[in-house]
Amino acid sequence: MFFHSTRGKDKDKTFEQVLMQGLADDGGLFIPDSWPKVDIEKLKKLDTFLDVAKYIVPMFTYSSFTDHEVEEVLNNTWHDFSQKDFIKIFDIDESTSVLELFHGPTAAFKDFGLQLAAAFFNKSLQAQNKTAVVFGATSGDTGSAAIDACKEFESIKSFILIPDGNMSEIQRKQMTTVNKKNVFPILVSGTFDDCQDIVKKGFKERNFLRDDQYLLAVNSINWVRIIGQICYYFYASLKINALSNPLNFSVPTGNFGNVFACYAASKMGMPIGKIIVAVNSNDILDRFFKKNDYSKKIVSETISPSMDISVASNFERLIYDFYLNRNSEDCSNLYKQFPNQGIKINDAMWQKSRDLFMSFSIDDDSTFESMKFYNNKHRYVMDPHTAVAAKAINILKDKLKNQTVILSTAHPAKFPNALKKADISIDEIPNNLREVISKKEVAVHLSASDDSIFNYIKENN
Ligand SMILES: *Cc1c(COP(=O)(O)O)cnc(C)c1O
Fold this sequence. Notes:
It is a single chain. With about 450 residues, the chain is α/β, with parallel strands linked by helices. The chain has a domain at about 90-110 and about 225-420: Rossmann fold. The chain has 21 helices and 13 strands. The model has no long low-confidence stretch (mean pLDDT about 95). It has helices spanning about 15-20, 40-45, 50-55, 60, 65-75, 110-130, 140-150, 170-175, 190-205, 225-240, 255-265, 285-290, 315-325, 330-335, 345-350, 355, 365-380, 385-395, 415-420, 430-440, 450-460; strands spanning about 5, 30, 90-95, 95-100, 130-135, 155-165, 185-190, 215, 245-250, 270-280, 355-360, 405-410, 445. Pyridoxal-5'-phosphate binds next to helix 11.
């Protein structure tokens, strides 16, 4: 199976090419040429998360790696989790469960996608005897998960731009306290959008790279991250009802990567009820699902900072696959004027949303309310991102058929200020977070100018 771009021009790419390239040459996003189909009966016999991953991942990688190679990679991929099977499922009541995806080393779900990315980056670099620079910007958890996933691989140097601003102190410290020779956190006086612009420019100019060196993207458009996330949807379905009945999934989302992985799992044969798209007051996705209006607005800062986005980059994949029935010319045209002009799709096509999607925008007050509600009523402490998805379920509860799974994307201890404001205390702080809090921060401060940042990378590369 090969991959092609949602905009049609970049195609016939292998898994390894897509992995190392990130964004397609025509500006689109890579997607598999067809959806691989799982054999549900076979899946039902599996037990652990790793079993499931060993079944799912090779379906996407065989254009580049043998099943045996992939199995070897996967045996060492997910590490430093505090749960034996990586994930815990907490039952709120008989119809609602929480899928806890935050037991990894950085206490957010991004460890699943980025540890898989790093493992395959390393596999590919070793085979080619090359080195790479990871260059990215982060508004929250991407940077720490990328740094942690890559830090043990000597062939990879990570340069991560951290904007002044809304991330929690722990989120920032997870990047600035690593203290490794191949890790370079860069504090930037500027916004996340400034940082992203610089990263984009860096990927164009590439003037800080040495000869024959890869520049790797870790943002959520890299297909390999989606693969890692598809695995836990199948795992949840296996554990909750042995893949026998459709489940609803409520997903707190920003860039739509996590929701798209859920959609992808359903295309591969996972039984699905509704996919609930839960956003904070940065509501571009909610405006699309409610009013067919996908237009960029200024970002507002919320207490769920990892979802503070102005556009949802992975959404292009859904437009292409679900709404446009894979017509790349139409997709190209829609994105030509975006974001200067908003996207509105043909009304008849847009109506399809109702079969599968529901959406909610939850503001900070309601998010606090949600954290308090689940703490008081169910003795369950959740982080503000999870609380956004949980609030949506609270509103919907009586309307939903089937069981519902709330995706919990971060450990609550990562957001102590939000907990304090909601008047909630927690007894256990995971060891990895406790250590981070007491360590000394080491990071360079640079202005939001591409020259100074590119020079810094060049000097340290
Ligand atoms: C990144 C992140 C999200 C949003 O995930 P997307 O894949 O961008 O939708 C939600 N919650 C937390 C805690 C995150 O770190």
